[in-house]
Write a structure and sequence with these properties.
Elements lengths: L21 H11 L7 H5 L6 H11 L17
């Protein structure tokens, strides 16, 4: 049996708020927003926005490429 690991940095939610107030809104917002640690991959990974320039760079540096394909603009520029 695996013990649950408490996460001390995670804000707690109120126990079923009856209505949306400034206090409950703030608690919900803080609960769903990603932490700085969870967003670290955006800055730590050297993302490229053009595939061919990434291929040329990867070949020159003998590195692999992760091709992330999705429906829609990858930078949310719609």
């Amino acid at each position: 049996m695996t013990a649950a690991v408490p996460v001390s940095d995670t804000p707690s939610l109120p126990a079923t708020p009856a209505e949306l107030t400034e206090r409950t809104f703030a608690a919900l917002r803080d609960y769903i927003l990603p932490t700085e640690d969870e967003l670290r991959w955006q800055a730590d990974v050297p993302w490229r926005t053009a595939f061919w320039s990434a291929v040329v760079e990867a070949q020159a540096r003998d590195l692999p490429i992760l091709a992330w394909a999705m429906n829609g603009h990858p930078l949310a520029c719609t």
